[in-house]
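Hi Prof. W.,

I finally got the 3-oxoacyl-[acyl-carrier-protein] reductase prediction working! I wasn't sure whether to trim anything, so I left the full sequence exactly as given:
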Amino acid sequence: MSEPRTVLVTGGNRGIGRTIAEEFLAQGDKVAVTSRNGQAPEGALAVAADVTDSESIDRAFTEIEEKLGPVEVVVANAGITADNLLMRMNDDEFESVIKTNLTGAFRTVKRGITGMIRAKKGRIVLISSVSGLYGVPGQANYSASKAGLVGFARSITREIGSRGITANVVAPGFIRTDMTDELSEKQQKEYLATIPAKRFAEPAEVAKVVRWMASDEAAYISGAVIPVDGGLGMGH
Ligand code: NDP
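And this is what came out:
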């Protein structure tokens, strides 16, 4: 097992983020979890922070650095949906989703790379979605935010890829969490019909891929998009 590292998972109080945090904890890393309500799984450092607020992110990093040491792995996972058909989507529905999912990742990663550049090592994993690559009706805002993460990871790779830092995107399909529980039974049935694996995934199936993307074994992978979607997006 490698040396314990300090890992930050945004939006790690529930759902996929929580399972990612638990996965890193299980391999002996020091894990900090941020969310607006400041809860975290047992064993993780819980820090309240809002990804739409740069000052709040800066405060969170400072606290984590003081308590756990420099952050070597950033998992930008915090995300929201505000689905609506484009014809009906208002500015706030569009902008709030971009602000959390895309600008939130920018704010978090920007603060995170200062320590990584100093340390000449780091792992950035951005949680996107099959929706960002494949497109989903009613999710123009969400899809745009998640596609934006791909360009973001690739630009980071070109900017600081020579510093021992990788930036990759993990694009989950349908994972059983609060976010997908909100879908109606009819929607769930329709989605299921399109997934070659014919099932939704458990959060751990995403978390294990994220853990590996952040490992030494993945040192030569950067700017990549790794789908965890049961074959739904193939080639997108
Ligand atoms: P959940 O709704 O279960 O969790 C979302 C997390 O994001 C919570 O921890 C929430 O914490 C946090 N969050 C939301 N807004 C903010 C904010 N402004 N500042 C800080 N934290 C925030 O979602 P999932 O676990 O399902 O999704 C996790 C990620 O995976 C998201 O980026 C989502 O888009 C992506 N994804 C999910 C899929 C799925 O099928 N579930 C499929 C593809 C991608 P709090 O509200 O307490 O602040």
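The chain has one domain: 6-173+202-227. Does that look reasonable to you?

Thanks,
D.
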